Amino acid sequence: MKINEKIRRIREINNISQETMAEKLGLSPSTYSKMERGLTNITLQRLEEIAQIFQMNVTELLESNSQIVCLISENHSSNYYGTPAEMTAELENLRLKLQHKDEMIVKQNELIEQQKRELATLHEIISLLKAK
Q1: C-alpha angle with apex 21: 19 to 27, nearest 5 degrees?
Q2: Is there a contact between 18 and 11 (Cβ–Cβ < 8 Å)?
Q3: Contact (CB, 8 A) for 87 and 68
Q4: Are 47 and 62 in contact (CB under 8 A)?
Q5: Directed axis angle between helix 29-36 and helix 18-25, to 10°?
Q6: Would you list the DSSP string of 98-116?
Q7: Which of 13, 20, 38, 101 could pair with 4 in a Cys bridge, judged by C-beta atoms 3.0 to 4.6 Å apart?
Q8: pLDDT tens-place string over residues 43-90
Q9: What share of the chain is helix, strand, coil (3-state, %, to 5)?
């Protein structure tokens, strides 16, 4: 089931009209209707607002047939579709990558400091040679 269909179904189950949903979201009824019909993209922020109206977590709203959809947005959007087990494995993989990235940054900073010390020593040697 597509997210727009799920939103419509949950709205109907909760006996909320499209007009009421549009009002709660600060949208015109026609804009909300287009969203429910899948004619416009739904932003993560809008999904969070909808989940709050239904008093549910965004992940609950996004679950579909034991599959989780994860929307990631940073200058552009991308989607991840998978089972909860696949999502857990992917999250662990990303956690390890972040940990490795942090370790690499620490090592790079240590190397930079070492190079600064070596450069200062070389400057001292050059100064001593020029003085002779």
Answers
A1: 80
A2: yes
A3: yes
A4: yes
A5: 110
A6: HHHHHHHHHHHHHHHHHHH
A7: 38
A8: 888 989 999 998 888 887 777 554 444 444 454 444 444 556 666 777
A9: 70, 10, 20
